[in-house]
Amino acid sequence: MRTATPSLLPAFRPRIQERLYDFYEELRTTDELFWDRHLSAWIATGHAVVSSATGNPGLSSVRYPDLEAVSEELRPLARVLSRQMLYSDAPDHARLRGLISKAFSPRAVEALRARILEAVDRIIAEAAPTGRMDIVADLARPLPLTIICDLLDVPEQDRPALASWSEPVAEAIGNSRLDADRNREASQSMADMLAYLRELLTRPDNPPAPHSLRALVTAQAENTDQDPDELLANCALLLIAGHETTTHFIGNATLALLHHPDAAKRLRERPDLIPAAVEELLRYDAPVQLMLRRARHDLDLAGRTVAEGQTVLLVCGAANRDPAVFPDPHVLDFERPGGRHMSFGHGPHFCLGAALARLEGAIVLEALLTRLPDLRTDGTEPPQWQRSLNFRGLTRLDVAFTPPSDADTGTRALSADGSPNALDPTTDAGACPFRPEP
Ligand code: HEM
């Protein structure tokens, strides 16, 4: 659908979500960077302009430069977001990121492997006897929440509350046109989440597990130079960023595999391709579609003058389908050479949780492909997309499968010592890259 004045706004409509990448292509062929008068923002759809903009110091990540200009309902939420690394620039950004980046080092993430395997196995074992599940509600939502809550030592009984606070906040971040009531709800949910985290981090009867993220945060909080509100705001960021995005990744990746049975078959035959498949699935249908920047001063971007204060929306989903970098961009190809997708961003704000998201995604793919080899859409309800410009994810994805023979135990994929058991007969379990070494 070519419009007289190009605009990204129709992407918000569920109808366009179904053909989102065709829509992006129409925008990109019109212009890789254009002024959208409906959104009052520059829209960048080409890979070169998106990737160069993420490292351009003339473009700021500060989302609310003037808190007083934000509506009264949204202002409390905006105040918290302004303390998060995601919405900060140097030098604050490096300081805020430094506070918690240790918890996401390759070694720290690797230590979570057994926990993720166990959680995936439990979820599949619970769903398996029925031969049906809603991938979103049963797997994609609970898994990342479990892992990020484990990282923060959040007790089991408190997790549903955290999920319920996170949703309205994610909705407000993904949609700048919410009505006053929804904005008020998002602000209140953030306040509730912060109050909870403050109490959790100072609970004397519940000391943090050594080397846990909570131990790190507690140690930082005891440092008198540290602003406790900054720490809390960034823990809230981890909770929200750590599960909303990965939830969408699991849903989108599963849908892509269901639509491409040959690609799924190839992965079952070649589990060594799973890391490449994770990257390709992230490229193919990015959970985060937009990154927002604002010009600090007049600057040149792809030959255009972006004026001080103007907003630039970097459309990762469109950049990921740019044929200049990804030949045949609409083909899902796990052996695609080169090309860096933009799904985790780029530059100083590159996703802090990328290694964790990749690991969760890889373990889920391996489990679905090997334990539920005839996974198929169950055909009752078409997949439904969430309404958001920023996040792309399904609200439900119903699937059916033949229950695996060990459905009652759920232990086939991971034995007591964490070593690989016999998986699908078509795969070599010993070669699977996602099980701990025996
Ligand atoms: C597939 C899942 C994920 C996707 C697609 C994703 C995507 C992104 C993107 C695009 C950015 C950069 C935003 C920008 O430059 O404006 C980002 C930043 C960030 N992500 Fe993720 N993310 C995912 C998972 C996670 C997880 C699991 C965590 C934490 C547990 C996390 C924590 C963060 C944080 C803290 C930042 C801000 C980094 C900074 O500002 O320096 N993300 N993510």
Tell me what the structure shows.
The chain has about 450 residues and is α+β, with helices and mostly antiparallel strands. The chain has a single domain (about 10-430), classed as Cytochrome P450 (Cytochrome p450, Orthogonal Bundle), CATH 1.10.630. About 45% of the residues lie in helices and about 10% in strands. It is built from 17 helices and twelve strands. The strands form four sheets. Strands 1-2-8-5-3 form a five-stranded mixed β-sheet. A hairpin with a 4-residue loop joins β1 and β2. It is globular. The protein starts with 13 loop residues before the first helix and ends in a 38-residue tail after the last strand. Residues about 405-438 have low confidence and may be disordered. Bound molecules: protoporphyrin IX containing FE (HEM). Protoporphyrin IX containing FE binds next to α13 and α17.
